[in-house]
Write a structure and sequence with these properties.
The chain is an alpha/beta fold and 213 residues long. It contains seven helices and eight strands; from the N terminus they run E-H-E-H-E-E-E-H-E-H-E-H-E-H-H. The protein has helices at residues 17-22, 44-55, 101-111, 132-138, 149-159, 183-195, 198-207; strands at residues 10-14, 35-39, 64-73, 83-91, 94-97, 117-124, 144-146, 164-172. It has a five-stranded mixed beta barrel with strand order 3-7-6-4-8, surrounded by four helices.
Amino acid sequence: MAPRPAPVPLLIACALGIEQFALRRRDRGAPGGPVTVLRTGMGPAAAERSVTRMLADPDLDRAAVLATGFCAGLAPGMHPGDLVVAEETRDPRGGVPCVGTELLVKELGRAVPGRTVHTGPLTGSDHVVRGHERSDLLATGAIAVDMESAATLLSAVRVGERPVAAVRVVVDAPEHELVRIGTVRGGISAFRVLRSVLPAFHEWHRSLLLPRR
């Protein structure tokens, strides 16, 4: 019999304490290998530092990396609680293609039935995007924006070749900006969705077949 492949670690990166809290679970096991949830802090610089430091650990040398948390939707008709599965992440330094987008869409449909899942480019910013900036970014083809995903994935692939992905939950959108009344309701909706996505992440993780180095 052929030897079983070694477990592939998974690093799930998010920026905020509330995002990390939403991703907590009682059982620590996962079918694809060990899972670490990393709180990077806000902004691309913090994400780059934290992810680079974590992947320097020999135990995470082969880790797949998934960036998650909240984001701002760019397209009209998006609502708090919608999901965004990135086909690629972008920032001024370049783009990183994501792996297993179709699988993630399917598994998120099972994990959070009834929620709209959008796919397309996810762009990075070094600040909270508001007003006309949304339409400017939408014109580039991006469907959502956040401050950490692009830096997280770019840092991950610079350290070494590995599968990467980004899944975000819309917390505000063109018709539902954070400054509006109803922010709390939108935030609660997004938090509840984020609490439910781990099974989809674990299925993505389990499906990975990394080449041995």
